[in-house]
Design goal:
Shape: globular
CATH superfamily of the domain at 70-238: NAD(P)-binding Rossmann-like Domain
Number of helices: 8
Largest sheet: 4 strands, parallel
Distance between the termini: 29 Å
Structural class: alpha/beta
CATH architecture of the domain at 70-238: 3-Layer(aba) Sandwich
Length: 246
């Protein structure tokens, strides 16, 4: 479980563990990763920076040492800093693709062979509603997550006959530190208070509230389980009805 020491990643790790999965909790905060793992039935905590050049390899080695090649791989990367599309430079584009695409592709390259050989596997990427409708002031996130979505959709068709599913799970406004940081950045950009920005967000959500991480994680656990064996190549939204398109 990538980037699982907080937010949606931690929630998914806990949901998978509750379903009986042996779980690898990882992140740059090693002590936090080990603390979460100690609270789960069968888990290990791994301190690793997935953005480091050797990050994916280190996570893979720790996973195989603990439990063998995984049946489930949940991809989750830190979002780039907020900002408009105008003025984005090549270095920022490279950084966004590195954090949201390149390192995930490297992990996939390690996990897929064993999944295909076994005839069973689940790949799930935590994306963003920006994949469907680009979000204002999140240009780099929109760019990187859309690139990963295109790659995974292509991959899904290639591995479906091997019993491996590949899906995206797209959050809307879920109550996490990342959401608060985005709301704060939007408030500063618009010269408004954080409360004003949050009220405007709530008005746009038919459910009338931000989602809870546990609700998002329950959807993720389903997509990673046996009953979801015929669901692949899909972008599933968990957003309280926020996006109005079908």
């Amino acid at each position: 479980m990538c980037s699982s020491t907080g937010g949606l990643g931690e929630a998914i790790a806990r949901a998978l563990a509750a379903e009986g999965a042996s779980t690898v909790v990882c992140g740059r905060r090693g002590e936090r990763a080990r603390q979460i793992a100690a609270e789960l039935p069968t888990a290990v905590g791994v301190e690793v920076d997935l953005l480091a050049e050797d990050g994916p390899a280190r996570l893979w080695e720790a996973t195989v040492a603990a439990f063998g090649p995984p049946d489930v791989l949940v991809l989750n990367g830190p979002g780039p800093k907020p900002g408009p599309a105008s003025g984005v430079g090549p270095a920022e584009v490279d950084a966004a693709l590195h954090s949201l695409l390149r390192q995930q592709v490297r992990l996939l390259g390690m996990a897929l062979p064993a999944m295909r050989e076994r005839g069973w596997g689940r790949i799930l990427a935590v994306g963003s509603s920006g994949v469907v409708a680009p979000i204002p002031n999140l240009a780099l996130s929109n760019l990187g997550r859309a690139a990963l979505a295109g790659y995974l959709k292509t991959l899904a068709a290639e591995v479906a006959a091997d019993g491996v599913t590949v899906n995206l799970l797209l959050p809307g406004r879920i109550e996490t530190e990342r959401t608060t940081a985005i709301d704060t950045a939007n408030a500063e950009r618009a010269g408004r208070t954080l409360d004003e920005v949050r009220r405007a967000s709530l008005e746009a959500i038919p459910a009338g509230r931000y989602g809870r991480p546990a609700e998002f994680a329950a959807t993720a656990a389903f997509l990673c389980g046996g009953p979801a064996s015929y669901l692949t190549g899909s972008a599933v939204r968990c957003d309280g009805g926020y996006l109005r398109g079908l």
